[in-house]
Structure formats: C-alpha cells, structure tokens
C-alpha cells in the first residue's frame, strides 16, 4: 500500500475568499457524449461533463443492479404476488436464458456507462491538460484542475464498473487460472466497428488496477499541486474546489474521494487474493481514512441506525451520492416493497420478495440490524385482504422521507456504494486469510458488538455469516458466495398462515418447490456466471458464451 504523508500547507492559509463550487452539491446540469458527433470539451464545460460521469455511474446503482445478485441467492423468497418479476433470475430454471431482460439490462447499462468514462479518458482537451499536469516542474497555474479531477473520476468509475462485470459474468479470480479464464470484453476506446472478444480474468483485473492507480495518482497530485500553489499564494478557485472534493471532510462525501479509491482497492485486493493489502486498505478506512480523521463509524444504537438507514444522515458511508426529491437518477430496491396508496391517508405493500427464514434466523433477537431492517408491522396485500403484524418485510431500503412526497413507501435512498461496515468485513476476512486471526477477531467482534450481536470466534464460517447479515440487499451476496466457492443449500421460508374472519385460512404466501424455497445452488452451478446476452453474441461473433446457456 502506498504511504502518503499528508502535507499541512493549506492549514492557516486564507482560503475563505473562495466560494466552493464543488460536487458536494451536484448540479443537475450535465452533458453526455454522442458518439456520432464531435463533442467539444473545454474549460468552460468540463464540469458539466464531469457531472455527466456521476449521472452515468448513479444510473447503474440499486434496482436491477443490486436486486439480481441478491435474488439469485438465499436471502429472499418469491411471493405469490411477484408477477414473475425477477422470477427467472430467482429460480434459474429453464426460463432463465441468455435472453433474460434483467441480465441484458445490467450488461448494456454497464457498457453504456463505460462509453461515457472512455470518452473523458480519451478526450483531446483532457489529455492535453493531463500532459501539462504530469510533466516534471509543471506550471500548475496553466492547467485546468477540473479536467484532471474529471480524469481521475472517469478512471475510478471505469475500474468499479469492470469489477462489477467481472464479479457477475466471470469466474472468481483464482491466481492459478486467471490467465486463461474468460471474463468480459475490455473496451477502452470507442470504435463502432470493433467486435472485441472476451478478455481474461487476469487482463480485466489488471485493467482495474491500472485505472485505480491512475485515479489515485491524479488525485494525490492534485492535492500536492493545491498545497504548492497555496504556499506560493497562487491558489485558484479550481484547485481549491478540487482539494475540497478529493479529500473527504467527513462521512457521506457525495463526490469521489481518495477514501473511495481506497475502498475499491480493498475490494480489488480481496478479489485477487492479496489479503495483506486488502486488510491494510480496509484498516486505513476504519482508522479514519487518508486524513486519519474522517470519522467513519458504525451507527450508535437504534437511533443511529435510523439516522443512517432511514434518513441517510449517518456516519457509515464512505461515498454517498446526491439525490433530491425532484431528481432520483438511480434505481430503487423496490422488489421488497411495492407500495400502493389505499385511500388518501394509508397504503399497503404487495412485495415481490420477502426475507427467507434462513436470513431472518441468522440474526439474534437483539441484533440492531434485525430490528431496523425488517418489520412485521407493514400492511400486506394477500388475496385481497390487508394483513398486518404477520409477514416480515425487508425495510433496509424503505425510503428516505425527504425523497418522497407521498405516504406510500417508494424505496428511494441516497446511493451508498461503499460503507464502513464492509471494510470491517474485508479486514476480518483478509486478516484471517493472511494468517492474522487476532486482527480478524478484533474487527469481527467490533462490528458484532456495535450491531448488538454476540461476539464470536473469527472462523471463516462466522465471518461469512456476518457478511450475510451486514450486507443484505447491497448486491454483494452473489460475489461473496462465488468468492468462497460454497454455493448454498436451500432458502427455506417462514410458514405464514392467517385465519380470516370468514373462517378461511390463508397459507402459501411463498410458493415452495425445488427451484424456490428448496433451491440448491452448489459452487459448481453454471449460473454463478451470468449469461452473455444473446443479442450481443448475435452482433459479435467473437464473443464466447458462458457454459450452460
């Protein structure tokens, strides 16, 4: 892990003369790229192009992107009211094919976003600024700092997106086979005529590392440049703004920071089996991030959990994206809610998926996550009857009241791509794998204690169970089970039954069957690799389909 000595050259310098115009308050103005026309990027509009990067990234968060890798696994059961939404994904039966629309949406959206990132990375104006910025003895006053920041952001988003694609469509990174295992096409420049073949897992993760290193390098050099200009009394508005965004001032930064880069490094090193580095990056964030004083902390008690997971005002996010009542810009994890108005002053839920007994039973009664993220108090529609205080609903993404102008829960939350809880889990798992069970136990037990759970020994099984409980709904279950090579054996449901006033008994809210509640998905199941969309294979005869489709 690179070690940086953070300079204090900006301390005591009169910076208040500047009015920050950074991405902490993201403007709704953004510019996208049209590959059929020449797009002019310059100092006057570079910030709008940078906002476009954030819009493209945010559009690939939550909704289908997190629900598909959750619902394929063992944490949720399909209800009788699902309408077959995500049904093929959940069951992976004969209806789950390479033409699956959910998978096509994920693949297409990720690659569409990559087009935006590539166009900034390869833009002539941005590259001219980068060349002037990176030379020895550069004259920073002649460089557009916003262009350098946008370049770093684009590299970071591209690294993140390729990691998501690799986790979904390729085998887990194994050092002994990564050089031959197929991953996804590496598309780094726009070429409408190109028909790229699938790169190897090793090549894709190699590109992820290059992009992370580039983002880290540009951000650190921006910091150093701002410090140097401040010392020389030449600090400009652009460098001041960039300084304020790349260094996190506290939890919940709405822009990409050096700490967000560290979080993605932690994931990268965990995936690639470099456990000492994974633990080091995760521990750095737990200890306050690059500044050592950012203040990431697990929520304190029930009130802290509510502040974090209802109002999006907690201390856990390393990166939390902007949102407003008027502008959502991301998907919503609403497969667990599906709320509808019931008159002017009430509502009911008609969820497609509810928590499995396996998930609910993983928690102790006093666990704050069980008490905060699940509820039996919601009115649920069942065969025309409104049933209350019976069915467990997953409410982790119930919706921030500030992002809702209705009484009906809408599932809208600020997108949080990285949370400090995940860093505790990475630190525990990586430390154990690296032969440091003491640190593994310390980090695991700190997380468990803050969540109101009983501390356990730092065995791999206990760490895996904590991943299940802590990151439920975040879309990480699929990649975790793949990384551990364990699959799952069954996802039993709670046995819900209700005696109606008519004398009839309602039962079977979650249909049983070998592809539903009794489903097994062993580690060698071909569905751990999502299918390459058939439409893309028809257009590109260089693409090779994953086995089993």
Automatic annotation (TrEMBL):
The keyword Signal applies. The keyword Membrane applies. PROSITE patterns: PROKAR_LIPOPROTEIN. Residues 504-524 are annotated as: Disordered. InterPro entries: SusD-like_N, SusD_RagB_dom, TPR-like_helical_dom_sf. Residues 420-549 form the RagB/SusD domain. Keywords: Cell outer membrane, Membrane, Signal. Belongs to the SusD family. This is RagB/SusD family nutrient uptake outer membrane protein. It comes from Candidatus Prevotella avicola.
């Amino acid at each position: 892990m690179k070690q940086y000595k953070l300079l204090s050259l900006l301390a005591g310098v009169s910076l208040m003369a500047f009015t920050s115009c950074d991405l902490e308050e993201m403007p709704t103005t953004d510019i996208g790229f049209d590959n059929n026309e020449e797009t002019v990027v310059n100092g006057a509009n570079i910030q709008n192009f940078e906002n476009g990067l954030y819009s493209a990234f945010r559009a690939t968060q939550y909704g289908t992107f997190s629900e598909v890798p959750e619902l394929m696994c063992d944490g949720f059961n399909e209800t009788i009211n699902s309408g077959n939404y995500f049904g093929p994904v959940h069951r992976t039966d004969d209806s789950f094919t390479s033409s699956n629309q959910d998978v096509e949406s994920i693949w297409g959206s990720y690659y569409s976003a990559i087009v935006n990132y590539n166009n900034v990375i390869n833009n002539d104006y941005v590259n001219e600024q980068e060349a002037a910025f990176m030379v020895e003895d550069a004259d920073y006053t002649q460089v557009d700092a916003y262009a350098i920041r946008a370049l770093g952001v684009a590299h970071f988003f591209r690294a993140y997106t390729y990691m998501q694609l690799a986790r979904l469509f390729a085998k887990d990174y194994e050092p002994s086979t990564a050089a031959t295992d197929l991953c996804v096409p590496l598309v780094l420049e726009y070429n409408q005529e190109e028909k790229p073949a699938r790169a190897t897992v090793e090549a894709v993760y190699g590109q992820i590392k290059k992009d992370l290193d580039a983002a880290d390098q540009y951000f650190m050099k921006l910091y150093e440049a701002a410090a140097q200009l401040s010392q020389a009394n030449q600090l400009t508005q652009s460098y001041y703004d960039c300084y304020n965004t790349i260094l996190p001032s506290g939890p919940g930064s709405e822009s990409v920071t050096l700490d967000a880069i560290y979080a993605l490094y932690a994931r990268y090193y965990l995936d690639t089996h470099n456990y000492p580095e994974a633990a080091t990056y995760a521990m750095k964030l737990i200890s306050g991030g690059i500044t050592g004083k950012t203040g990431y902390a697990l929520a304190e008690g029930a009130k802290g959990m509510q502040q974090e997971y209802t109002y999006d005002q907690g201390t856990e996010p390393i990166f939390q994206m902007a949102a407003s009542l008027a502008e959502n810009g991301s998907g919503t994890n609403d497969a667990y809610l599906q709320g509808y108005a019931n008159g002017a002053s009430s509502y009911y839920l008609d969820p497609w998926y509810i928590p499995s007994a396996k998930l609910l039973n993983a928690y102790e009664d006093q666990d704050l996550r069980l008490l905060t993220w699940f509820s039996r108090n919601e009115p649920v529609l069942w065969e025309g009857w409104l049933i209350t205080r019976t069915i467990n609903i997953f409410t982790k993404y119930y919706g921030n009241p500030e992002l809702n102008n209705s009484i009906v829960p809408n599932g809208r939350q600020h997108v949080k791509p990285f949370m400090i809880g995940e860093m505790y889990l990475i630190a525990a798992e990586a430390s154990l794998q690296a032969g440091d069970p003491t640190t593994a136990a310390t980090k695991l037990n700190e997380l468990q204690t803050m969540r109101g759970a009983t501390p356990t020994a730092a065995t791999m099984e206990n760490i895996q169970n904590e991943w299940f409980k802590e990151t439920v709904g975040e879309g990480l279950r699929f990649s975790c089970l793949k990384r551990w090579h364990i699959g799952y054996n069954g996802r039993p449901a709670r046995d819900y039954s209700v005696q109606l006033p008519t004398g009839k008994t309602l039962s079977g809210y979650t249909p049983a069957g070998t592809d539903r509640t009794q489903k097994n998905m062993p580690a060698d199941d071909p569905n751990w690799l999502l299918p390459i969309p058939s439409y893309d294979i028809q257009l590109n005869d260089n693409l090779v389909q994953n086995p089993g489709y």
